[in-house]
Amino acid sequence: MDFTLTAEQRDLQQRVRDFIADTIIPLEQDPRCGAHGPSEDLRRELIAKAKAAGLLSAHVSPEYGGLGLDHRSKAVFFEEAGYSPLGPVALNIAAPDEGNMHMLEAIATEEQKERWLRPLAAGEIRSCFCMTEPDPGAGSDPSMLQTTARQVGDEFLINGRKWFITGAEGATLGIIMAKLEDGRATMFLADMNSPGIRIERTMDALDSCFPGGHCVVSFDNLRVPASAILGELGEGFKYAQVRLSPARLTHCMRWLGQARRCHDVASRYAARRMAFGKALGQHEGVGFMLADNELDMHSARLSIWHTAWILDQGHLGTHESSMAKVIASEATWRVADRSVQVLGGQGVTGETIVARIFSDMRAFRIYDGPSEVHRWSLAKRIFKRNSA
Amino acid sequence: MDFTLTAEQRDLQQRVRDFIADTIIPLEQDPRCGAHGPSEDLRRELIAKAKAAGLLSAHVSPEYGGLGLDHRSKAVFFEEAGYSPLGPVALNIAAPDEGNMHMLEAIATEEQKERWLRPLAAGEIRSCFCMTEPDPGAGSDPSMLQTTARQVGDEFLINGRKWFITGAEGATLGIIMAKLEDGRATMFLADMNSPGIRIERTMDALDSCFPGGHCVVSFDNLRVPASAILGELGEGFKYAQVRLSPARLTHCMRWLGQARRCHDVASRYAARRMAFGKALGQHEGVGFMLADNELDMHSARLSIWHTAWILDQGHLGTHESSMAKVIASEATWRVADRSVQVLGGQGVTGETIVARIFSDMRAFRIYDGPSEVHRWSLAKRIFKRNSA
Amino acid sequence: MDFTLTAEQRDLQQRVRDFIADTIIPLEQDPRCGAHGPSEDLRRELIAKAKAAGLLSAHVSPEYGGLGLDHRSKAVFFEEAGYSPLGPVALNIAAPDEGNMHMLEAIATEEQKERWLRPLAAGEIRSCFCMTEPDPGAGSDPSMLQTTARQVGDEFLINGRKWFITGAEGATLGIIMAKLEDGRATMFLADMNSPGIRIERTMDALDSCFPGGHCVVSFDNLRVPASAILGELGEGFKYAQVRLSPARLTHCMRWLGQARRCHDVASRYAARRMAFGKALGQHEGVGFMLADNELDMHSARLSIWHTAWILDQGHLGTHESSMAKVIASEATWRVADRSVQVLGGQGVTGETIVARIFSDMRAFRIYDGPSEVHRWSLAKRIFKRNSA
Amino acid sequence: MDFTLTAEQRDLQQRVRDFIADTIIPLEQDPRCGAHGPSEDLRRELIAKAKAAGLLSAHVSPEYGGLGLDHRSKAVFFEEAGYSPLGPVALNIAAPDEGNMHMLEAIATEEQKERWLRPLAAGEIRSCFCMTEPDPGAGSDPSMLQTTARQVGDEFLINGRKWFITGAEGATLGIIMAKLEDGRATMFLADMNSPGIRIERTMDALDSCFPGGHCVVSFDNLRVPASAILGELGEGFKYAQVRLSPARLTHCMRWLGQARRCHDVASRYAARRMAFGKALGQHEGVGFMLADNELDMHSARLSIWHTAWILDQGHLGTHESSMAKVIASEATWRVADRSVQVLGGQGVTGETIVARIFSDMRAFRIYDGPSEVHRWSLAKRIFKRNSA
């Protein structure tokens, strides 16, 4: 066992750290950061800066324009990127595009990659992942899928309604999960501007970090050709897993960066702000909170690194990525919450970035599997292991 | 010991509950509910409805147009009012006006009451409490007060800067805490439209339930006459305590109502929404969260009732109101957080009222004394008691 | 709502407090306090002292030699009694006798009461409640009952094995839950010295406060007459409920007293012991723990009082007593644990009484329904209420 | 970063695992396991078995009869050893001997090593570390040291009283921390059978895993020669740090093993025991607890490994070992506590090993620095880092 970063990892770490500090953080107050994420205009400006810095799409292979990092290097890189809410968007490693690119690279045909992956990796277009449905459809339980894909000659007719579709507004590519007539799930690639796709509305949401916000999207006799099938017919759930395990982990990496940002802001404030005769941070009650922040970030980071290593060995890492998701999502949330508390009035207002990160982060304990679903998966494996 | 509600309390409870359900909840999606609270227009409409229902200003004595409830009856009434984020505003029992009215009734001269309390109790004007200052001024530690009041003849010249002043925008009355030349603190009543008062800006904030939002206010040679002194010269901190102990408790009451709302929304969703073969609420993992919600609300309610009883005995209840503040603010927060979690995607979006309450509620663990300050007060009393 | 203690309650509170302080605490280091509870010899000595003080069997009606307290008065009395681990035994209000007496008084025939209740209430004999069975028998789920009662003529033949039977060693009365041939459960009263009853062994246990410890008891063709049936045939589970709801609450009362003892010992130590330049209790980190102790005890006490009031209204209080059990058992545990932590080395050794209470208390989160069973009961009720 | 175990580590892991399972666990119910730890007789028998298995004194260099493991290999080895409460004693890696040997090897003269280290490493003698004192002496704050060492000619006269001295009864070597006349602390090596050393008593304690228990030891004009000084005169606190940082970490390793044992026992029970129609472990409420156990053990293990790696780089690792201590001691405690809860009545009695581990483990959150002291150390470093 060895916790040393490679020279390349240390170099990337420093470069991203500097890029975020020098180039991205100054843009955080840009008025183009709206309730539904940075505007397309701002996003393109950010992408251009990252491209100039040679830091674009770190998870994509060089063949498609990225840096081709393995999971462990991503752990280092993405944490730095997450230090600003704008960082992942700038570096083109934000959800859902990052996971979509990963899945396309793993599963898509060469033709599909040229059409969708290449411009995605260049940050020219955005994508969305249309899986979650309104009640009584697919949520945490994907088997409840309601959207249908009926084969009509060479084409498929897709009908249904999706919900909480991040980034749909403004996306060019939609990856749509639908149920075949035989009940098996399949993913289709579609141009979001196709007739038959309608963005009903953009939802109000606690977070504001995802370009395009979260949308309700309906498919009304959307026609897609057989060439739009992603991978094999009927293998939709399997591919969702291919997407999910690493996508879940990259979420952890990015949010760890945001937690560290909160902690740094709170720590600096606590070192400076006086109350009751000494600096806030010299009060044990406050100091303990900051110590707990470091303990939480340490646990989150180590579990992320460990799972990244598992994935780099070629394993699926389902158990480990569930553990990392629960540990990291709950630990980073506590960090954000404590940072708000240490900051007091500063923490619940826009005076610092912390309130924004706090609001952005709440959904992290829910998406890519709520803590409860992961705990239940872990429990089922423990039960099975002990029932033999 | 007896936990029976009086017939009058039960009657008020039902009337407020019906009023909220029938009249206020339908207005929650009104577009006039903005980022900085309901508009003045909407507020006046809400007040009119409450007045028509005979439920206005329950904490103010009948002499000044209220219902004259004691603290225990307020506990019942305010919890029901809090069931909607708009409820306290409608019933004219929202912070900071509620606490300001309470303090005016306890301390102000007859003339001051006629000028300020009467229109406040009628919901015709709003008020703000100008105490908190930006770093390095008064926050949790009021002794760090920077704003000064210099006597010049019959007048006082007030200079300084306040921060996180809830409801300042649109308020008619400002209650300003300032330091005399001898260092003692004094409260002054001022018309917010006076020359010398400037609202620098309205702050971005996590919450959106307070009309007027939270503002930065500066005083630049504000002139007030001696008749504007609230109570005795130099007794500002004592009066702040008169305001704080009950104001802290009414916060607890209102937020308990909001927590119950979150819990009800989540419980109903959990009873209906299917996942993995049964209703969400039939999963122990979810059911336990809802059970914990009830345990938390029960503890919060009992500690509120207990402190209300202490206050009704004429005691200051400093120790008890600190306990109630910590218990209720932390318990209701956990309820809101669990409700978000149970609701999943619904919880982090505007699909239900829960996300809004969740955002509104975060500051409650901070204002009127953060949990840490109350714990420290309790600890000091424990230490003293055991050191004798 | 009113939290005032009656004059009688205040008087009893003071008398028990004095009795514990003056008479019982000095006996805590008595060598007759063994691993399986105080010896019968010590117990009789304690009972004699309580009798002399006029404080024996507070929960039993005066007709049978007790003080006839209602539930609310018991809440006050039992908390004081619990301030010493020996207090409940001395005052003859310890589990399981206290609950057994309560049930006998509610259900037994006059003849049964004379034979069993009267000497129990006088502290002359002890009793045990034989319900729990070893795997795969009745534990948290009473429906898994394995012990059988077969009617043979006028008699019943009882066969089975019980486990974790508190106080069996040395008990004169055994209340035995068994399953009839038709599957219904029934309770029988038996002399523990009957042929057919064998105490297999006394179990090692974390606690050492119950006279007789916890035993494994087997019934091998135990013969009991029909007159030994408690109440109606086949109503065993119903009566278990009659016993459980108040028995659960009296547990809460007694353990609250023990928690307060831990807190007092820790608070005094923290006020005296120096570390890093000031008293332990002047360190916020320690002071916050003591503050949390008071918050936890406050919540526990209020929920106990509330449930006692419910029971005094003649209600079963199943929901409320579940809430009180979870709140009180978890809160008092945290108090004991924090007190150990504050005391450091003193806390984990026999230097103070706290380590003993800590060990004694752990099982409280398990018996009379583990927290998980109560949470699930609460959850089912919430689900049902919201599914209508 | 790499989490791979070396072939040697995997081999040792398996060998220790087998040794514990086959040889040590069967002895756990040996009646020679008393309230103050295994008897000397049993200890020697255990040592003989470990020696035969070639697994003795893994942390000592081969030169002195050990396996010479680095910190990372110890992390693997000690966790396996800790799977039984008797394991560390058998393998001669239990506290306090293990830390004492480590310190002797690092600091002692060759002569001192031959006299003390060699027989210690062979398991022929035991040692104790005499640092902690009764109030008002040295506890968490070592600067409060009261025991004095006065130089008289070539000798030192030691006077004072120590407390909570683990293993003193039966120890041959005592390492005594005392204050010189100039106030500097120094460590002395003494034969515990020397005139002037008296073991006043063995304390009652929650734990029962340390041979010799915890004792009160007094020094009354104990005479030691200058050759008994460990290292340099006046450097006692520095050496205590040399001992503490790794000693703290080996504690974490061993206790992690014990936590895993608890979890395994509870998991197997949960997979088998039925309640309410299914296995306990199939209830989410129970399954979540077991999942949390795995999350906690994962975090503990990763933080231990990380700190071991830091120490293997030659760093002191003060910050990291503080983090590992807090994370591991609190996580393993939660694991033990949840395991008790899952086991119900089995958990609070001697029916399984879990109750014993639970009692043994409580002190771990206190010794080698209570969580509060570590949090405060972390906080001070955070403050300093942010104040620059």
Automatic annotation (TrEMBL), chains A, B, C, D:
Positions of the Acyl-CoA dehydrogenase/oxidase C-terminal domain: 234-382
Single GO term (MF): flavin adenine dinucleotide binding
Domain of life: Bacteria
Signal peptide: none
Residue ranges occupied by any Acyl-CoA oxidase/dehydrogenase middle domain in the UniProt entry: 128-204
Gene3D superfamilies given in the database record: Acyl-CoA dehydrogenase/oxidase, N-terminal domain (1.10.540.10), Butyryl-CoA Dehydrogenase, subunit A, domain 2 (2.40.110.10), Butyryl-CoA Dehydrogenase, subunit A, domain 3 (1.20.140.10)
Cofactor(s) the protein requires to work: FAD
Entry's Gene Ontology cellular component terms: cytoplasm
Keyword Disulfide bond: no
Keywords: FAD, Flavoprotein, Oxidoreductase
GO biological process terms held by the UniProt record: fatty acid beta-oxidation using acyl-CoA dehydrogenase
InterPro entries in the record: Acyl-CoA_dehydrogenase (IPR050741), Acyl-CoA_DH_CS (IPR006089), Acyl-CoA_Oxase/DH_mid-dom (IPR006091), Acyl-CoA_Oxase/DH_mid-dom_sf (IPR046373), AcylCo_DH-like_C (IPR036250), AcylCo_DH/oxidase_C (IPR009075), AcylCoA_DH/ox_N (IPR013786), AcylCoA_DH/ox_N_sf (IPR037069)
Family: Belongs to the acyl-CoA dehydrogenase family.
Name this protein carries in UniProt: Acyl-CoA dehydrogenase
Annotated source species: Pseudomonas linyingensis
